[in-house]
Design goal:
121 residues; alpha+beta; two-stranded antiparallel sheet; 4 helices; 37% helix
């Protein structure tokens, strides 16, 4: 969850877990199999894409390497609307203006780097 989403979701249809990723303590929302589509956290809304924060501070949108074995869309990326990718990038660029969000995106991006090294994807 991005900072602030925890407060919005702590009561309701998600199980919330706190974990450490890199140097950051973050909350994860775990759905119970279905959810109200309009109340999904940001990262659920952009799945299977990942807003990746480059080391130069710019955002690029990549296929989330953690989703490669789970999401059939990633084996046929031509079905992912380019407009959706642009919207994810634009929203992410706005979100990283906040330092807390920027730190979370940076840790997720470094985690993606490690995952890619491990899996080769």
């Amino acid at each position: 969850l991005l900072p602030g989403e925890y407060k919005l979701l702590k009561k309701g249809e998600y199980k919330i877990k706190k974990k450490k990723i890199g140097k950051e303590k973050v909350y994860f929302a775990i759905c119970r199999g279905s959810c109200s589509r309009g109340k999904r956290p940001f990262m659920c809304r952009v799945y299977p894409l990942l807003p990746y924060l480059n080391k130069d501070g710019t955002i690029k949108v990549i296929a989330d390497p953690r989703a490669g074995y789970l999401c059939p869309l990633l084996s046929a990326q031509e079905y992912i609307d380019p407009g959706f990718k642009k919207a994810v990038k634009k929203a992410s660029e706005i979100l990283i203006r906040d330092n807390d969000n920027r730190r979370i995106f940076a840790e997720l991006s470094r985690t993606a780097d490690e995952y890619i090294k491990f899996t080769g994807n």
